[in-house]
């Protein structure tokens, strides 16, 4: 009987959370509810990721939210994800996923730099990353950068290196006018709680100083699945489960990098 109560409670929370996301996506007062204060409206945004599929696995709530706020979004992917020798395939998959996410293909840049190759234990130089990001900011007239935090959601070294590269950029006095925001990594329990985590994310954002952390709900959860499905080389059973049960499919918390 106790197990039945637990199961029913989880199902009710799951359904209620999905309803909350749907309600917010249809509500004209969403900006006020999430309290972004207009920070993310009509900006030239650069999303900096490490590998093809990072955008679909971790950042779709951010991408959908920014698109709906009239932002001009660019994606800079630092590698082709060639750890298994499938770099050319994965590169094309990212272009297909970007179509699903309403990001023009011409605004998706994928690098294949010899010093920025995919793989655990392959450290990327922060000065090199900073230089590349700086060039992209200048070329695309970027005023806001979004990337991983210092843990990088999964702890992947390339994700963490990207964060350090952005920090290195911000240390440059000439780029202090560029805002940078990081995707907040959560505990493993929250990470796999699916849409239920939206409640903790909203509370977390509200208890931080105004303008420091914003909680962005995914206005189009199905788009996350459709985008990730374009990465056919990576679309194996455990990643299908990840996208369904990951909180990052349903909500992103972005924290300003100071």
UniProtKB/TrEMBL annotation:
Enzyme class (EC, first level): hydrolase
Gene Ontology CC, one term: endoplasmic reticulum
Molecular function terms, GO-annotated: N-acetylglucosaminylphosphatidylinositol deacetylase activity
EC number(s) from the headed UniProt entry: 3.5.1.89
Gene3D superfamilies: LmbE-like (3.40.50.10320)
GO BP annotation list: GPI anchor biosynthetic process
Pfam families: PIG-L
InterPro entries per the UniProt record, alphabetical: GlcNAc_PI_deacetylase-related (IPR003737), LmbE-like_dom_sf (IPR024078)
PANTHER family given in the database record: N-ACETYLGLUCOSAMINYL-PHOSPHATIDYLINOSITOL DE-N-ACETYLASE, N-ACETYLGLUCOSAMINYL-PHOSPHATIDYLINOSITOL DE-N-ACETYLASE-RELATED
Family of this protein: Belongs to the PIGL family.
Name by which UniProt lists this protein: N-acetylglucosaminylphosphatidylinositol deacetylase
